[in-house]
Every structure is written in structure tokens, then in C-alpha cells.
Amino acid sequence: MTRAEEFEELRPLLFSIAYRLLGSVSEAEDAVQETWLRWESSPTAPASTKAFLSAVVTRVSIDVLRSARVRRETYVGPWFPEPLLADPYEDPERAAELADSLSMAALLLLERLSPLERAVFVLRDVFGFGFPEIASAVERSEAACRQLAVRARRHMDAGRPRFEADRAERDVLASRFFDAFSEGDVDGLQELLAADVRMVSDSGGKAPQWGTGIAGADKVARLLVSLVAPFTQIGGTVEPHSLNGQPGAILRDRDGKVINTWTLDIFEGHIQTIRTVLNPDKLIHVGPVADAWSVLRQATQIRRPPAS
């Protein structure tokens, strides 16, 4: 097998590691590409190609993460990871860990960790790497990595999000939610929303912040209903879609361009949080991006009562 073939075989794993470390599709793809360049120029063949490439992509991602954390300190409004349509890496033996670590809530929780803690946690608890491999990847001793793992688990367990265990039941609830939204059914929406449900959006200052900071079942339900009629009248569509392993949707304008994405956190039969990503920089990989400001102006004109 050639180096290129070996790399392509491991590309899904490398991307999945990088995405969980960076929370960015574009940055993860760049980290994987940099890993290929280093692999291509390496004069020696490692004992384990998987261990070598995983270590390289981890180191590259840690460097990117350190600079990204500085940028995020000046980010306008809430920061969310870039929505991921599908995880390219599959491992039946670690399916639960992979799925749990992909959700928006889990990725946001990872933001609380230091870059080294995050790397050790992802490699150990998500992908099941041994401590000798992890120590090589982060260039620390095995003892130090074990301590980092303990601290990371403590932080994660303290704020670990809880999700609906039954995925089929979760998906049915999400389907009912989008049906009620499309029908403008306030009562139907309220029935599905947790009493303290929150609707939060990430626009990065580059798009309107629809619904940011709205909390409570009644307020969120009425906000959603106020949006749906003008949105559909201007040709907008709601496309239910799994995002980050969670029920969600892609909202598109009349031309099929992406306006934003929604992801739903579900627990105990109710929707706990609705997260919307509107920042156009974070939607490029989803498809051609709409001008959200233009969509908002069109919808506002529809909602505005006619002059007497």
C-alpha cells in the first residue's frame, strides 16, 4: 500500500480527531492537509502509521487551538462549533463515545479544557488510544497524561450534558417539533419544549441574531410561530437534518441557499436548547450561503402591517 493510500484510509479518523479538538470543519480539514504534507516529507516509515498520523494531527490541532482560543476571546456574541453534517469515522466498538462527543453541547464543554487536557481526553476517552501513544502525541510523560486525563474527566463530568438515551424516541420528538413549527402550532410547540428551554444563536456579528437569549417555553414557542409565517411566505424552507449527531435542521431561502442551522438538545422527552448557527463563515461547507440580512428584510416586510 502506498503512503497516499494509507493516508486516505486513515483520513476519516484524522478529521474526526481534529474536529473534536477544534470545533471547526475548515480548521480540521486544514489540520489534516498539514498532516499529509508532514507525512509525505517524512524520510522514515513509523512502526504504526495510525499512531504516527494521529500524533501529528493532534500536535497540529493543539497549535491551531491555542491561537483560536485567543481569537474567540474577542468573538462577537456566543461561539458555537461549526455544524457537522456527518462524522466520516465509524468504529462500532466506540459508537457511543463517538456520538456523545460530537454534540454541540459536548463540544462546548470541551472548550472549558486546556488544549492539552482536551487532546488527552479526546484521544483516550473518545478514541480509546493507549497512554503510550497519547504521551507521544502530546509530548508529555505517561504519568502527566494520566493526570491530564483525570482533570479533564472531572471537568467534563461536572458539566456533562444529558441527552435522550432512546435515539428513535428523540427523532420522533424532533419530527413532531418541526411539524408543529411548520404549522405555527403554539400549543404543540409548548408541549415539546422544556419549561426552561433556551434559544441561542451564533452570528459572529455577521448575521442577524434571531432569537438570541430567549428562554422559557411560552416565549420560545411564540417567537418560533412569529417567524414561520413570513419565512414560508418568502419561499423559505426547513429541511430536517441530523447535525453533530443530533436532530436538527437546515433553513434555506427560496433559492435553496443556507440561511442557518438548528440543533436540538433533547432530554426526558423535551427540547432543552435550540442552537442556531447564522455566521456565514461557519456554513460554507454546508452549501451556498444566503444573505441572512436580506432574508430578514423580506420577512420583516411581510410581517409589517399595511399602511392605512
Features:
about 300 residues; alpha+beta; Butyryl-CoA Dehydrogenase, subunit A, domain 3; Nuclear Transport Factor 2, Chain: A; 6-stranded mixed beta sheet; RNA_pol_sigma-70_dom; sigma factor
Give me the secondary-structure topology:
Blueprint: H1 3-22, H2 25-41, H3 49-72, H4 95-100, H5 104-110, H6 115-126, H7 131-138, H8 142-159, H9 167-183, H10 186-192, E1 193-202, E2 214-215, H11 217-233, E3 237-240, E4 248-252, E5 258-267, E6 270-277, H12 292-303
Parallel strand pairs: 1-6
Antiparallel strand pairs: 1-2, 3-4, 4-5, 5-6
Helix pairs in contact: 1-2, 1-3, 2-3, 3-7, 6-8, 7-8, 9-10, 10-11, 11-12
Domain RNA polymerase sigma-70 region: 7-69
Family: Belongs to the sigma-70 factor family. ECF subfamily.
Domain RNA polymerase sigma factor 70 region 4 type: 105-156
Description:
By secondary structure, the protein is α+β, with helices and mostly antiparallel strands. The protein folds into 2 domains: 3-159, Butyryl-CoA Dehydrogenase, subunit A, domain 3, CATH 1.20.140; 167-303, Nuclear Transport Factor 2, Chain: A, CATH 3.10.450.50. It is built from 12 helices and 6 strands. The protein has a 6-stranded mixed β-sheet. The N and C termini lie far apart (76 Å).
Task: Find the count of extended strands (DSSP E, 2+ residues).
Answer: 6
The level 1 CATH classification of the largest domain is: Mainly Alpha
How far the N terminus sits from the C terminus, by CA atoms, comes to: 76 Å
CATH topology of the largest domain: Butyryl-CoA Dehydrogenase, subunit A, domain 3
Task: Please report which band the strand proportion falls in: under 5%, 5-15%, 15-25%, 25-35%, 35-45% or over 45%.
Answer: 5-15%
Low-confidence stretches: none
Identify the quaternary structure here: single chain
H/I helix tally? 12
What class, by secondary structure content?
A: alpha+beta
Encode the helix/strand succession as letters. Answer: HHHHHHHHHHEEHEEEEH
Mean residue pLDDT: 92
| Main sheet makeup | 6 strands, mixed
CATH architecture of the largest domain: Up-down Bundle
Q: Total domains, how many?
A: 2
Shape: elongated
Order the strands across the largest sheet as they lie in space.
2-1-6-5-4-3
Range of helix content: 40-55%
Radius of gyration: 21 Å
Family: Belongs to the sigma-70 factor family. ECF subfamily.
InterPro entries: ECF_Sigma-70_Domain, NTF2-like_dom_sf, RNA_pol_sigma-70_dom, RNA_pol_sigma-70_ECF, RNA_pol_sigma70_r2, RNA_pol_sigma70_r4_t2, RNA_pol_sigma_r2, RNA_pol_sigma_r3/r4-like
Keywords: Sigma factor, Transcription, Transcription regulation
Domain RNA polymerase sigma-70 region: 7-69
